[in-house]
Design goal:
- The chain is 32% helix and 27% strand.
- It is of the alpha+beta class.
- It folds into 2 domains: 1-33, no CATH class; 48-189, no CATH class.
């Protein structure tokens, strides 16, 4: 069973609230989740962690990429996600191959640069995800998935920066916050 957790702290004196997401059901859980066995071998695709930010213009994207690379981030660890027509207009600026994802419930085709994000989204499309929102809801809470789909539909370019450790996360977060007009989120893509 694949489970992702979102921990929110209500107040300094309140206990954290754990929201469980498994499939499409959400439920509040008052305490820690039981672990079957620490010796149990986990199989399947690993959890991938990404910092995600939305950008309005190509100039903002280029500024973010410059900041990320100056901080030591390899640009092949960055995936672009947007409307097909938006990424097609930026073809000369995008170093990776662009993959088109036609979700039947989306008005316009979605595009993503080749890599782990595109692979995971294509996998969700193959098993019947009707929209980008539905595909992202496999890993994100519904509100976040809807927010990212809305950003894409509004013509924004989402940069997904793969994170490998805490220092990498801190540097990427700082670079994206300094260059993006919107918020930056960190999301885990668990399993396929």
């Amino acid at each position: 069973m694949l489970i992702s957790y979102l921990i929110r702290v209500k107040a300094a004196t309140a206990a954290p609230v754990y929201t469980r997401r498994c499939g499409t059901k959400h439920s509040d859980h008052p305490g820690p989740w039981p672990i079957a066995s620490a010796n149990q071998l986990m199989t399947g695709p690993p959890t991938l962690r990404f910092a995600v930010a939305a950008f309005d213009t190509s100039a903002e994207v280029q500024k973010a990429l410059h900041s990320l690379s100056a901080g030591g981030k390899a640009l092949n660890d960055v995936s672009y996600l947007g409307l097909g027509r938006v990424l097609a207009d930026k073809k000369g600026e995008i170093p990776q191959t662009v993959r088109t994802l036609v979700f039947p419930g989306n008005v316009h085709p979605i595009a993503c640069t080749a890599g782990p994000v595109a692979d995971r989204l294509a996998g969700r499309l193959e098993v019947g995800a009707a929209t980008l929102d539905t595909a992202l809801s496999r890993w994100l809470i519904a509100r976040h998935a809807a927010h990212l789909q809305k950003a894409v539909e509004d013509g924004k370019i989402l940069l997904w920066v793969q994170l490998f450790d805490n220092d990498d996360e801190r540097r990427a977060y700082q670079s994206l916050l300094a260059t993006s007009a919107s918020s930056v989120g960190v999301h885990d893509l668990v399993g396929a």
